[in-house]
């Protein structure tokens, strides 16, 4: 019976029609200038209570031949764009591009815009979507990487997302093959190293597996980006979130630790828990204290901490350990030592997308704009946490 189901699935896979370039819904901020190639659709786990991105969406693997078609179309566009950018072709540039778009057909115009955006940004990196592309067969991943490298040998970096549990199941030999084929960096959403929180958020993995996967990734030669989510344990597990995650990072020494402050979109199970009083939301001050505790306890590693998301309150919490540790701790302490009124101004300024740096708190015109928002919306100590929660949703 199982063999018959497997054969049936294979037939359905072979029969899948190619419908042109596909773009998934998400990529890391660090891949803003990357070409996006969709290997898998959606998330195979799709149970994390803090995430609503792939809810009601089925996971599937695109046939690798479809990826080859995507690459062929992108290559076609890049070849024309390179020709059109030559000085001797400036006079015919518009005609060359118009003919290119016509040859693609109206249904495939997204190919041109993806290629043009990538071309303008230097064609340095490619990101393989969606949430867990390392789930595909190692032979298929190697074949895709070989095809990318053959068509775009100048590309400096190819990256993808993966789950720790997936990496832990891949043999060291196959991970090394994939690394040697040209996948440079893997992004893993650790979120937390605390087993109690991992169970509560239905992450489907434990701390031990996070550590194993991180170590295997580094051993195979990949750059590793791990994500930490302040606030994920609420008020009850704030200390454990910081300390257990720091311990996991200390055992992995990831190349990058990326901070992703918790926000709660309405369509998530965790938001429902919050409404029902099951989950107690940590406010900005509590999450800054949590981040301070995390960084204080990162020892013996050389990771680079990145605060490359607008959800993070203090963007200056960036640097490479151990050299920049004191600088990052000072930035967090700066906020904690502000008066209640100054914290309110900075929090609203940051969450309204008006303030981007600590120094802007003392900028007269920026400060005046934020103060007017506080007055107009009647924001005070009693309602600011609710206001902040709502403002953060706009960035999800």
What would your notes on this structure say?
This protein is α/β, with parallel strands linked by helices. The chain has a domain at 340-396. The chain has helices spanning 2-15, 64-84, 93-104, 109-120, 138-151, 164-169, 172-181, 195-200, 207-219, 238-252, 269-275, 284-296, 325-336, 340-351, 364-376, 384-392; strands at 35-38, 40-41, 60-61, 125-129, 157-162, 185-191, 223-228, 256-259, 304-306, 319-320. Strand 7, helix 10 and strand 8 (256-259) form a beta-alpha-beta unit. Helix 2 (64-84) crosses helix 4, helix 2 (64-84) runs parallel beside helix 5 and helix 10 packs parallel to helix 12 (284-296). The mean pLDDT is 93.
Task: Give a nutshell description of this structure.
The chain has 396 residues and is α/β, with parallel strands linked by helices.
């Amino acid at each position: 019976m199982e063999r018959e189901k497997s054969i049936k699935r294979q037939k359905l896979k072979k029969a899948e029609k190619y419908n042109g370039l596909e773009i998934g819904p998400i990529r890391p901020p660090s891949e803003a200038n990357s070409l996006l190639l969709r290997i898998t659709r959606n998330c195979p786990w799709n149970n994390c209570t803090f995430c609503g991105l792939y809810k009601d969406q089925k996971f599937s693997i695109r046939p690798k031949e479809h990826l080859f078609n995507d690459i062929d179309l992108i290559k076609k566009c890049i070849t024309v764009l390179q020709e059109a950018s030559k000085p001797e072709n400036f006079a015919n540039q518009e005609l060359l591009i118009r003919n290119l778009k016509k040859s693609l057909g109206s249904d495939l115009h997204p190919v041109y815009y993806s290629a043009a955006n990538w071309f303008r940004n230097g064609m340095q990196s490619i990101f393989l979507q969606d949430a867990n592309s390392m789930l595909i067969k190692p032979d298929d991943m190697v074949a895709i990487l070989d095809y990318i490298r053959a068509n775009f040998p100048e590309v400096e970096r190819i990256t993808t997302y993966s789950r720790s549990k997936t990496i832990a199941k891949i043999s060291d030999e196959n991970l090394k093959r994939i690394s040697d084929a040209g996948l440079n960096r893997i992004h893993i959403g650790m979120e937390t190293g605390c087993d109690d929180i991992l169970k509560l958020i239905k992450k489907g993995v434990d701390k031990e597996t996070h550590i194993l996967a991180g170590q295997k990734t580094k051993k195979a030669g990949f750059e590793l980006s791990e994500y930490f989510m302040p606030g994920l344990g609420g008020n009850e597990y704030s200390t454990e979130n910081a300390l257990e995650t720091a311990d996991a990072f200390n055992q992995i020494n990831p190349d990058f630790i990326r901070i992703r402050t918790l926000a709660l979109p309405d369509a998530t199970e965790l938001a429902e828990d919050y409404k029902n009083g099951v989950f107690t939301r940590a406010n900005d001050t509590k999450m800054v204290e949590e981040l301070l505790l995390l960084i204080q306890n990162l020892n013996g590693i050389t990771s680079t901490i990145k605060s490359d998301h607008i959800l993070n309150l203090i963007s200056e919490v960036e640097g490479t350990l151990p050299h920049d540790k004191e600088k990052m701790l000072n930035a967090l302490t700066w906020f904690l030592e502000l008066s209640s009124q100054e914290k309110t101004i900075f929090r609203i300024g940051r969450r309204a997308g008006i303030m981007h740096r600590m120094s802007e708190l003392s900028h007269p015109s920026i400060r005046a704009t934020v103060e007017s928002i506080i007055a107009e919306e009647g924001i005070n100590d009693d309602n600011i946490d609710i206001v902040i929660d709502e403002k953060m949703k706009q960035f999800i």
